[in-house]
Every structure is written in C-alpha cells, then in structure tokens.
Here is the input.
Amino acid sequence: MFKAISYFLGLFCLSCSLLFGDMQGTSSGPSFGPPPRQDKLDSTSNSAQIVLKRAERILSTLVFDPQNYQLILSSKSVFGGEAVSPCVYSDKPTMIIYQGALSPNRSNEEIAFMMAHELGHLNLYHNEKMNEQMGKIFQGPTVGISGTTFAVFFQKFQEREADMFGLYLYKQAGYDIGFFPFTLGILNINPNIHFGSSMIFAKSPSSLSMRDSHFSMKERFELLVSESQNPV
Here is the structure.
C-alpha cells in the first residue's frame, strides 16, 4: 500500500514541473526527506546565490512575504521549476528553479508566471491534498475508480487551480498580460512546442485525454488569454 501511495505522490510531484518544466524531470517525492535526483541542487554557494538573485527579485513582486519561501537552483538547463512541500529540502515551502529559466534570454514575464504557477501549488497545498486523497483511495473501500484514473483527474484539477492562482498573482504584480496572447500565438503556429524551452515534440505533450495529467499548453493558454481579460 505504501509503495502504491508513494508512486502516485511521485506522479503528482513530477507534474509540478509540468507547465514549464522538463518533461522528464525527477519527482519531488513524499515529504519525508530529499529524494534522489539526477540534477544538482544548490542554494548556498556564491554562484547559486548570484543566479538566484533574479528569481528572488521576481518572487518579491509576487508575494508580500518572500522570506517565507526557500529558493533552490537546479542544474537543469531547461526552463522550468518545481513546487516542493516543507520538510523535504527546508522547513519552508520550496521552489526549485531550473538554471535554464534564469538565463538572460528569458523574460521577466516568463519567469514570473512560471513562479506564480508554482506558488499556486504551494499555497493551495496541492502536494498535501494529493497525499490525503490518494491515502483515502488506497485505504478506503472500493469506489469503482482506479487510483490512476483518480490521480490524473485530480492533477488536472490542481493544474488548472495553479494556473488561475498564478494568473491572479501575475496580474496583481502588474506584469504585462500581453504575454498570454503572444504565447498563444506561438502555440497556434506549433502547438507541439513545450513553452519556455526549445523542445518540440512529435505531438502535444498532454491534452484533455484522461491519460494525461496536464492540459496541453495550447489548452492552458487559451483559458489564460480569456481569463486575463477579466479585472483582478
């Protein structure tokens, strides 16, 4: 039973890098200690602290209490980030920022929305809620739905929640909402581009299909364009 719950927790935490993250990134894992990773994490060296300065500045525009979050730099060269619950890498809610996200050719708008999305996962306690719900699935009576189906459905709901939460923070901070139609225009030309990177897939990374834990980029940005027109 524990292995089954751990599997779906890993599946969920992997998706926290989803919207802008490496499609083959490692998961954050259950919150009982740092899981093994293929990338290198760093928050203490001088070089990491210098690179993270930009993320710290953007974080301070999105929340009033940036000191209550832990930022960690990942050696991954792609654009992305991950939301990790407290008690894994720190006693604070943690955001792992991929080094590729902080390269000079990335706009503040790109980074701000990626971080705002991850803040959505953290502030809505998505890891904890997934843990609780999957525990009910595996410990409770048979309810006629497989754990896999439920996990995918629940993740889609949480990803949309994180998008809407992130959009609110993004707009409150005064970032340009033109970022959303601009990005959708790119996705309309090639919906198989994984936003925030140069990765192009044979097909869209995920879709409305219940086999996928995320909506596709195009589906997400269509909604974000529509919702971004509404007043804060």
